[in-house]
# Entry
Amino acid sequence: MTKPDQFEEVFRQLKDILKKFEPEMILVNDRPDSYYLNTPFTEQYKKELFFGAVQIKKRYVSYYLMPVYIFPDLLQDVSPELNARMQGKSCFNFTSVKPGLFQELSLLTQRSYDRFKAEKLVV
# Structure
C-alpha cells in the first residue's frame, strides 16, 4: 500500500476524533479531503473560532487543533512521539495510521474541548 493510499484511512480515523464534537460546533466543510469545525459565535471574540480540522495534503494528513495554540499549556503532557509530529503550534502530521498516537491525540482533543468549554468558548 503506498502512502497516498493510506492517507484516506489516516484521514478517516483523524476525522472520527473530531466528529464527536460536531454536535456542539459549526461544520464548515465535510469533503473527502477536508473536515473543518468552528465553535459557535463567542461573545469574548465576537466571532466563531477555529476549533479543528483534518486535511489530506500532498505528503501527509494534517490534524489541526486550535485550542493548543490559544492554550499552549494543553501540550505540557504530550509525549515526545506526538510532539515530533507537530508542525507549527497547532498542527500534527501523519503519513500512516498510528493507533497509540491517535489515542493520545483523541485525549488531547477532549481536553482541548473541555478547556474551550471552561473558558466559555463553547456553550
In short: The CA atoms of residues 16 and 107 lie 13 Å apart. The chain has one domain: 3-118. The mean pLDDT is 94. The longest strand covers residues 50-56.
